[in-house]
Design a protein that fits this description.
mainly alpha, 0% strand, elongated
């Protein structure tokens, strides 16, 4: 067993918290044989168990798992230290993106933070690393860890005041809004979506404005404010044509509007919207409107039959509902 691995194992067992343990691993990564370190921790764990020390054995087992979980990041960090600076930052970016794609955002974040501590970065490299951390924040959101994603975004030193950064600002506020929405913090979500809309309009990005308006309307639906959702979606549908939106985008907006009408207690208007979706997409076959727009939990089912009052009363609208 390696003497260096024994010393690091002892240091890990004495670390006061997880952050310190991870720092020790990254500091010594370039000198360690990770297989030997794992064997040392396993031997220590078994010795504690034999000595009747379950707490100490559990601690050794925890650090063994930590080494196994951080193996890819530790090896990447070790490799990065031996590479030329011109290639180093690009390599970090590729490695982090591979870890994100593999569903390991924590390992990607460890890698990026370790590189930021140990390697010199110019303004270009720093900007690229900010972009990687943004991707990590989004990966955390998709993994159901939106609170952690928001905390990571808040920790980034993002200066987006230049007019050229307006589109980036649009997407940052949209992402933050989605994260707040995932936590049912709907007022915060709508505030972020409003900022995203302002930025999208300023830069004239039609796809971003469409996406953000849909997200805003859905946040109203989440909060039970179906009438506000109807108002926002009517505005979106009315303007979609002038924006030159494609068939799929217009069909999506109409489908969402139908869902909002149904949630607001207006099934006739909902059916009218869903008929327009079918006409727009050229689908004449029988199909449930639920396939045009997903239903919120607790909303009226798109396939529910009309109420007697609705079916017995002739339509008296003076304008099309959608």
């Amino acid at each position: 067993m390696g003497e260096r691995e024994r010393r690091v194992a002892a240091l890990l067992l004495g670390a006061e918290d997880l952050q310190r343990a991870q720092q020790l691993l990254f500091q010594h990564a370039q000198y360690l044989d990770l297989d030997l370190l794992g064997e040392e921790l396993l031997a220590v764990q078994r010795q504690f168990e034999a000595d009747g020390q379950p707490r100490a054995a559990a601690l050794a087992g925890f650090h063994l798992t930590l080494v196994q979980d951080r193996r890819d990041a530790l090896r990447a960090a070790d490799e990065l230290r031996t590479r030329e600076p011109a290639d180093t930052w690009q390599h970090i970016e590729r490695q982090a993106e591979e870890l994100i794609a593999a569903g390991a955002p924590d390992a990607a974040l460890d890698l990026v933070r370790d590189a930021a501590r140990t390697l010199a970065a110019d303004s270009y490299a720093a900007g690229r690393l900010l972009g990687v951390q943004w991707l990590i924040a989004e990966a955390l959101h998709h993994a159901g860890r939106s609170r952690e994603g928001l905390e990571l975004l808040d920790s980034l030193d993002l200066d987006l005041t230049h007019p050229a950064d307006t589109l980036v600002r649009t997407r940052l506020h949209h992402l933050r809004g989605r994260m707040y929405r995932a936590q049912a913090a709907y007022e915060h979500a709508r505030a972020e979506f409003a900022r995203a809309l302002d930025a999208a309009r300023a830069v004239g990005s039609v796809p971003d404005e469409l996406t953000v308006r849909l997200a805003l309307a859905e946040s109203y639906l989440d909060a039970g404010r179906s009438r506000d959702a109807v108002r926002e979606l009517r505005r979106l549908v009315a303007r979609a044509g002038s924006w030159g939106a494609g068939v799929e985008d217009r069909a999506t907006a109409l489908g969402r509007l139908g869902t909002a009408y149904r949630a607001a207690g207006d099934p006739a208007a909902a059916r009218a919207c869903h008929r327009r979706v079918l006409k727009l997409t050229g689908d004449a076959g029988p199909r449930s409107p639920a396939r045009c727009a997903p239903q919120r939990p607790g909303s009226v089912s798109a396939t529910s039959p009309p109420t007697p009052a609705t079916s017995a009363r002739p339509a008296r609208r003076t304008r099309r509902p959608c």
